[in-house]
Fold this sequence. Notes:
Blueprint: E1 2-4, E2 7-13, H1 20-23, E3 29-30, E4 33-34, E5 36-40, H2 46-49, E6 55-57, H3 67-74, E7 79-81, E8 98-99, H4 103-115, H5 117-135, H6 137-153, H7 157-164, H8 168-182
Helix pairs in contact: 3-5, 4-5, 5-6, 6-7, 6-8, 7-8
Amino acid sequence: LRRYDDCFFFHVIGSNAIPQGVLELNGTVLGGHPRIVIHGYVPSLRPLFAKARLSVAPLRWGAGVKGKINSAHQLGVPVVCTSLAVSGMHAVDGEHALLADTPHALAAAVLNGYYNATTWHRLMWGGRRLLERRFSASRAATGVLEVLALLRETNTLMGMKSLAITDARPRIYADLRAASALGGYFFNFTKLDAAAAL
């Protein structure tokens, strides 16, 4: 959502096929202004998000960490979304995002997040804190180290096998593969270069 002269414009962005019913809303005029703009795929969100006041994610299905939520938080744009959109992401309603699961509740949350400056600032800073605490590169590195420490301390065949490998590169590779098999951390390595082994 972007604001111009006390009216907002709703921009629809996404790489998937857009339903015909949504496409027909493109250019909808309210109050003498076209209020809905359908973009579809855009190569970079930064130009649009630099002017956006809110990001709305009315997801009805999906799993795992949602990139659209983290991208908005990273770019300092508060989020209004369904509870499914932040499922498993540790988001608290009213602190990190505004959550709503019906069309009426979503509309009310959008108006609250858009016009209430106190709510807007709380969500903007809360989203950034959540991103740093749970999804930053430093948090991911800490998580990997925690899993590796657990493997070294656990008396399992997998843990003993990784400890028995003396060369650092294959040992780290084996630990990371084992960590991914345990769940929670997923890696897709084809090779591990010398710099990564240090």
